[in-house]
Amino acid sequence: MHTSKPSRRTVLAGTAAAAALTALPAAPAAAGAAGSAPAYRWRNVVIGGTGFITGVLFHPAVRGLAYARTDIGGAYRWDERTARWTPLTDHLGWDDWNLLGVEAMAVDPAHPNRLYLAVGTYSQPWAGNGAVLRSADRGRTWQRTDLTVKLGANEDGRGTGERLLVDPRDSDTLWLGTRHDGLLKSTDRGATWAPATGFPATPDPSGQGVTLLVAAGRALYAGWGDGAPANLFRTTDGTTWEAVPGQPAGTSAKVPVRAAYDRHARELYVTYADAPGPNGQTDGSVHKLGTVTGRWTEVTPAKPGGTTADGSADTFGYGGVAVDARRPGTVVVSTNNRWAAVDTLYRSTDGGRTWTSLKEPAVLDVSETPYLRWGGEQPKFGWWIQALAVDPYDARHLVYGTGATLYGTRDLRHWAPWIRGLEESAVRRLISPPSGPAHLISGLGDIGVMYHERLTSSPSRGMATNPVFGSATGLAQAARRPSYVVRTGWGDHGNGAYSTDGGRTWAPFAAQPRLAEEAPGPIAVNADGTVLLWTLVHGDGTGYPAHRSADGGATWSEVPSFPKGATPVADPSDPAVFYAYDTAAGTLLASTDGGRTFSARATGLPSGDSQFRVVAAPGRTGDLWLSAKWNGLYRSTDGGARFTKAGSCRASYTLGFGKAADGAGYPALYQVGTVGDVTGVYRSDDGAGSWTRINDDAHQWGWTGEAITGDPRVYGRVYLATNGRGIQYGEPV
Questions:
Q1: What is residue 100's DSSP assignment?
Q2: What is the pLDDT of residues 231-261, one digit of tens each?
Q3: Are the beta carbons of 656 and 711 closer than 8 angstroms?
Q4: Residue 706 in contact with residue 728, Cβ under 8 Å?
Q5: Catalytic site residue from 90, 156, 446, 623
Q6: Quick one: signal sequence residues (predicted)?
Q7: Does residue 156 have an active-site annotation?
Q8: What is the per-residue pLDDT across 381-440, written as a single tens digit (0 to 9) for each?
Q9: Regarding beta strands 414-417 and 363-364, do their DSSP bridges make them parallel or antiparallel, or are they unpaired?
């Protein structure tokens, strides 16, 4: 994630919405395609969660209706009838990738079908502006208003809020708190927006701005994350805002993270931390305000500080807060960033005078998502707990989000992931083996490598172990020896591993290059599994020389002639041949001595963009394809000596192969690219002579340019990597 801060922006009124965005049938075939577009069914490869759930919201007036938001993977609606989450923002396409992060959501208690989302993943200068999505049918269809300000759903503070609110006095009035542009107001149900007059706080270009909006009776409260003159404001008339009097000592330098109103006791609970989170918090507290009396009371369950049994510092902030809609004085709060003692929930039934921790008696059942055992450990109760909600119709139905899942309980003791249908993986690598029990092996951000025995259930082995990695950076299979698979990634106990049983079990390389720990880039294995090439790439993109091993990772030697930072590609038939693309020079290089040396072949190819991918056609020597992003698609049939541009597509972002169509003499090609004027997922059965679009406008998933592969055993099946919506797979119907 980029961490540079945006410059100050001037806020202007937003534009009115365009036409409603509806779920459409499959689009017609793209220009040049062979025949009409086939009907495709798209589903998630099931893993279960895997990303940061930043908000959960039960509808106060409809039993069983709930919504969830994520930092990069869109929003979801809980369907009580099917007991699944339904994704609501898959219609957002390639150009709108920045809108897959949901900054805030709001429902209208008086109109149960209305739903509002404030979307925008980054507030950096290179990112687009945010938008507000408006639905009158619980997210089935949308209208959209583009904003003139940026939002930051995947930045610090993404677990605060909600920052979006329907005014309880008037359903046509909405409020939106922004990070760097103050408070916005709409009087036409979100169609247009303007700065709210009378809001006294001055935005800080590097601050958090409005962190929460909550209604307490007919008053509205706004949390402010940038300090002076106060960090909590209110209005009783929708026009005049004031700092809430008597704010507790010690909170002025803290961030109000979340708030919840007990309407029976007329008390507003506020959680505080010394940073917005989810990381970086070391101190925090919980306070409640009597909204009638104006009296503040500290009700912090446990003070941060001190040490744990092993001597570690017990530092943390407070995050989520939720109240029982039917029982006054019943409230739940969460700690956050409590790594030493592990985060917990505290519950009180007497207005915060006494508290009970729900962590110690908890029984966690993660059998449906085994990766939550984190490589054989006991599952953790939680971390990054800022999303927290109590079902207004069932006080013992409590849910909370973590950095990887959403836990739920019906009895306050037994907990399990409440996650069916919600998939938020950022997918980096995909392999579809030609044989063996698994049709798919994946490399993910944060969660490492998965071996998918079935596409419809979470992998029973969980994360690949021995060693356990975080984000995967490389995944490769020996083409003529598919039982041999290698992987690389970010880890604390080694950064490379190999498998001799097709990816079911793993062992670490006996050694690794010196820089591998801080720069574990992609890896390739030659056709018979006897040579490894590992490129070292730092997290900031800095490339280092590749390293070669001919003894299964026991020893490594530098390859000086390999272009720094390039991705190595093995020829699928000839074990002596590797390829690499020098993106800076626009040159294809090849090795014919098993990766010891590389020399230039074709020159004058597209350059200057980091997203160039060389893919070797399966079962063929020297049959290479260059996917060159905005420059289109190129092919070489002579090992990279010459390339010819395929005229059938204008842009190509990622490319892969699958089983050939009946009677076809060449494997099916799949790509994310632009044919004519339409960017989508395409299949070609005639070697890129023509393309057929196989996704539709309802299934776009934002940015999908990382990886794609067909299934070598099932014609028409394709696996697609998304950046926040997990692995999608499509099949003809």
A1: G
A2: 999 999 999 999 999 999 888 889 999 999 9
A3: no
A4: no
A5: 446
A6: 1-29
A7: no
A8: 999 999 999 999 999 999 999 999 999 999 999 999 999 999 999 999 999 999 999 999
A9: parallel
Show the tokens assigned to 698.
């309802």
Residue 92: other Cβ atoms inside 10 A: 24
Let me know the angle formed at the C-alpha of 430 by 424 and 431, rounded to the nearest 5 degrees: 145
> How many CA atoms does the CB half-sphere of 549 hold within 13 Å?
22
> In the chain, what is the straight-line distance between the N-terminal and C-terminal CA atoms, in Å?
38
Output the six-digit token pair for 25: 């049938």
Q: Coil, helix or strand for 435? A: coil
Q: How does DSSP assign 352-405, residue by residue?
A: TSS-EESSTT-EE--TTSGGGGTTTSPPPS-SS---EEEETTEEEEEEEE-SS-
Q: What is the pTM of this model?
A: 0.94
By C-alpha distance, which of 248, 260, 201 is closest to 388? 260
Active site residue 686: no
3-state helix, strand, coil in the chain (%, to 5): 0, 40, 60
Identify the three-state secondary structure at position 444. Answer: strand
Domains and their CATH numbers in the chain: 85-247 (2.130.10.10), 255-422 (2.130.10.10), 427-732 (2.130.10.10)
Coil, helix or strand for 566?
Answer: coil
Bridge partners (DSSP) listed for residue 255: 273
Cis preceding-peptide flag for 572 (omega within 30 of 0): no
Q: Which of 557, 516, 558 is nearest to 539 (CA)?
A: 516
Q: Give CA–CA dist 602/642, Å, rounded.
A: 5
Q: Do the beta carbons of residue 547 and residue 610 sit within 8 Å? A: no
Among candidate residues 80, 99, 79, the one with its CA nearest the CA of residue 89? 99
The DSSP letter of residue 661 is P
Q: Beta strands of 80-166 (E only): which ranges?
A: 84-87, 102-108, 111-119, 131-135, 143-146, 164-166
Could you tell me if residue 430 is left (phi over 0), alpha (psi between -120 and 50 degrees) or otherwise beta?
beta
Q: In the chain, what is the greatest distance between 2 CA atoms, to the nearest angstrom?
A: 82
Q: Alpha-carbon distance 356 to 334, whole Å?
A: 12
> Could you give the CA distance from residue 214 to residue 676 in angstroms, rounded to a whole number?
47
Q: Are 131 and 144 in contact (CB under 8 A)?
A: yes
Asked whether 415 and 79 are in contact (CB, 8 A), the reply is no
